[in-house]
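Quick one: co-fold with phosphoric acid mono(formamide)ester.
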Amino acid sequence: MNSKLKHFTRFESKELGEQLIHSALEYKLDPKKDHQKGAGKRIGCIFLNPSLRTRVSTQLAALNLGMEPIVLNMDKEGWALEMRDGAVMNKGTVEHIKDAAAVLGSYFDLLAIRAFPTLTHRDEDINDFAFGQFLKYSGKPIISLESAIRHPLQSLADQITMKEIFAEKRKPKVVLTWAPHIKAIPHAVANSFAEWTLGMGHELTITHPEGYELDQRFTKGATIETNQAKALEEADFVYVKNWSSFNDYGKILSTDPSWMLTEDSLSHAPKAKVMHCLPVRRNVELSDEILDGNRSLVQTQAQNRIFAAQSVISYLLDS
Ligand code: CP
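Sure, here it is.
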């Protein structure tokens, strides 16, 4: 295993991806097999944004390894953070990231951070500015709990789920489809799913309405198809996700309900399993009939978040 990786923020290599998937599946069989590995160590889980799965699964993963997790909901319980270096702090922000991250770094052995994009400051978002400030100033290994542009623990859980489900020798046909939504949603899950799926050597088709092209840093090698019905034909896995426009940054260009996945949409994909990271807007992004039917893998994905986090924390404890 690559012993030099200090942080877990992105897809690194197929080799490491396979190692983490293998380790996660071992933890799934026996979650407490390394229950002393993190004894005496603490992980600080810092949330600048809401969460259900990431918050709980990361804590459970740490507890399975004997670590003590402490959660700080910075958006609700912490001081308002100033992220910009050199700022004259005479407005709403109370504490500079330089000070806060250094303090947190001194309290914990590992840090895990969630920092969503602004969806208004494109240049800052695409360079993962807020997340990068934690990396710069904490001095400790950091796990991404979702940054402006990536959600690697979700993507690892998704790869674990596909590995568990797909037993055939051939490569699966994987489709990432845009879905309607009423709010402007970040690109992180879609970016990361593309990055990991392509990086792990799968073929990926991405389908979306015109104007919803993702950042090409994440989609190189994917087939882009604006005809959803064509893209879905014979799919093995259909990953459903909304994202706002990247080119017309952060804007909602379409809410076309015909993009919501139904059994009818999958009439030419009889074996397709359907994935979504949750939370999902039922009957907007995805129909009840899909979510409550045999195709849905959403609960398996959510459960695998524990073992994805456990494999990553365990890996960083070895580094
Ligand atoms: N999928 C996911 O990250 O869920 P939460 O936002 O609830 O953590």
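If it helps, Residues 154-302 form a domain with the Rossmann fold fold (CATH 3.40.50.1370).
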